[in-house]
Structures are given as C-alpha cells and as structure tokens.
Amino acid sequence: MMMNRWCPQCGSEEATRFCAHCGVGMTSGARVVNRITGGLALGVTLLFLLAPLTRGGPDALEASGGGPGGVEGAGLRSPAREAADQLFERVVEAAEVNDSAQLALYLPMAVLAYQRARPLDADGLFHLSTLQRSSDLLAEARATADESLAANPHHLLGLFSAAQASEEVGDTAAARGYYARILASWDREMVGRAPEYRVHAEMLESVRERAQRILETG
C-alpha cells in the first residue's frame, strides 16, 4: 500500500501519485517544502530566500550580517553566522528540488548553527524562525519571531514569522492580527528600506498580497 504523500502546491495529504485537488505530482518531501515556503508561491519564495546567500552585492552582504546593519556591526560576518547562512542555503536548495533526505540532514544542523551564531540581526532571526517552523519547532519559531518583534514591533519579517507560526498551530485569530499589523506597518517600515527589506523585496510583496487576501476573506 502506498504511503501518504504531500502536495507541494496545496499541502494536501493523499495516498496517490497526483493531487486530486490541483493535479500536481505528490512527493514525500512536499510537506517540509510547503512549511519552508510558508504557503507562498514556491519558486518566488525559495528564490528570494536564497538570493542573499548566492548573489553578491553590498545590500545582500549587509542584510546577511556582513556590513554595518548586520549582527557584527561594522566588519564582516562572524564565522559562526557565515556557517549558519551556508547551511540555510543548503536547506533552501534541498527544498527547491524536494530532496527530503537533504532536508532531514541540514534542517537540524542549520537551526543549531543559528543558535550558536547569536546575537542575530532581524534577517538572522527570520531565517532561524523559518527553519524552526520547517522543523515543527513551532513554539521555538514563535519565540524567535517574538524576539525580533521585541526589538522592533513593526518589523515586517518578524510579523510574518509570527503570523506563520500562529497559523501552524491553528491560532487563526492571532495570525490575522499579525497580518493586519503587517499592512498597518508597511508604509512606516518601507521608508528607510532596511537592508533585509531590499534583499527580500519580492518575497515581501507576496507577503503583503497574502495579508490582504486573508483579511479580505475574514
């Protein structure tokens, strides 16, 4: 008997080769991939999570901790943060090709690496919360999001992390509250265009669209 598989498009669980809801081929690794992408468009989200780690440029370097706005302040990223970012890249690459074996290997390593790289900037906390949520460490993912929001209660990545962690545990009211705060904070946060916002610009546009859809359907 075929074991249940997961649809990478809608997250449905079925013991079939193709999803009955959207026709996409099922895979045993899809559930983890769907958690990593947070329900956004798979290709867009993976691309723009991976971009700061694979493409150079001053904005990408600064947002990932290698410039004045990063965890190290002035100067380069710490070796611990650099190692964590490299493992995050491995996770995203594995998710991009639905490689569940590589995800199982690198997810726990990446979570531990970011913990060891503390203190983390907002971008690092976003990466860590994403990894924790992808590992079913939902309480930890929410705590990491709260840590980011303690430093800046309007930070869009922190709010998105908190919204996603709330959705994962079925707290739709809290999730809607965070999505509402994303929309309320959007103009204020985009004034200075923080480095992590520039790096994740297209992903954040998808986040805003998601927030609008969720609040409109309430």
Sum up the structure in keywords:
218 residues; mainly alpha; two-stranded antiparallel ribbon; 2% strand
Structure, described:
It is a single chain. This protein is an all-alpha fold. Helix content is 67%, strand content 2%. It has 11 helices and 2 strands; from the N terminus they run E-E-H-H-H-H-H-H-H-H-H-H-H. The chain has a two-stranded antiparallel ribbon. A hairpin with a 6-residue loop joins strand 1 and strand 2 (13-14). The N and C termini lie far apart (40 Å). Residues 28-34 and 36-75 have low confidence and may be disordered.
Number of helices: 11
Widest sheet: strand ordering? 1-2
**What global shape is seen?**
globular
Termini separation (Å)?
Answer: 40 Å
The ordered H/E elements are EEHHHHHHHHHHH
Report the uncertain regions.
28-34, 36-75
Backbone structural class: mainly alpha
The largest β sheet comes out as: 2 strands, antiparallel
Give the fraction of residues assigned to helices. 55-70%
Global mean pLDDT: 76
Strand tally is 2
Q: Gyration radius, to the nearest Å?
A: 17 Å
Percentage of residues in strands:
under 5%
